[in-house]
Amino acid sequence: GNSVTQMEGPVTLSEEAFLTINCTYTATGYPSLFWYVQYPGEGLQLLLKATKADDKGSNKGFEATYRKETTSFHLEKGSVQVSDSAVYFCALSHKGRGGTSYGKLTFGQGTILTVHP
Amino acid sequence: DAMVIQNPRYQVTQFGKPVTLSCSQTLNHNVMYWYQQKSSQAPKLLFHYYDKDFNNEADTPDNFQSRRPNTSFCFLDIRSPGLGDAAMYLCATSGFLGYTFGSGTRLTVV
């Protein structure tokens, strides 16, 4: 079956430090890959996505590249801010029924990021 | 803006007292999902609908049920909540434009 493995947290950084959160997956075929962010007490927000190999998703200074050869989708940001403190989830899905673009999501376990001033 | 709305944001219920959480969407998406999330763990899929076709995950307890009376609305019913059911419940939809999550309902069982 499908699975997603993220690096264990928590991750604690100083403001303006470089961030990497590793994500690897196991799946058949060519799933779509996602990073979601969850702020305290909130629901999930899509941060970025990639739908095919070598695609790069980017948003708000975050980037991740779909690497089929290493089955990875690592999240990076060059300079983190205190406001980036949150839980980050890597996830995958395959196409859904009836031509819907996305089927069920499989999540990694989440990585807690804390950024200090 | 098209969105997924969950009500209420916070719900307190008594041990064993049935409770219903609601979700509505203005996206006209075919598929709706209910996830359970405990303490910043990964969300766990409980069930999903493709239109009116209900799909239960194998490990979803019988205590949890769902209704989808029309495209826009979906309900999560917990027949006899236990302390272990305290969690954030997330509703999501998916269609050609992708996934959209609601803000969640945090359920407390007292």
Can you characterise this structure?
The complex is a heterodimer of chains A (117) and B (110). Chain A has 117 residues and is mainly β. Helix content of chain A is 0%, strand content 47%. In chain A, strands 2, 5, 6, 10, 11 and 12 form a six-stranded mixed beta sheet that branches. In chain A, strands 3-9-8-7 form a four-stranded antiparallel beta sheet, with no helix packed on it. Chain B is mostly beta strands and 110 residues long. Chain B is built from no helices and eleven strands. Chain B has strands spanning 4-7, 10-13, 19-25, 31-37, 44-50, 53-56, 64-67, 73-78, 87-95, 98-101, 105-109. In chain B, strand 5 and strand 6 form a beta hairpin. The N and C termini of chain B lie far apart (36 Å). The mean pLDDT of chain B is 92. Chain A binds chain B through residues 34, 36, 38, 41-46, 49, 87, 89, 93, 96-105, 107-110, 112, and chain B through 6, 29-31, 33, 40-43, 45, 48, 50, 88, 90, 92, 94-99, 101-104, 106.
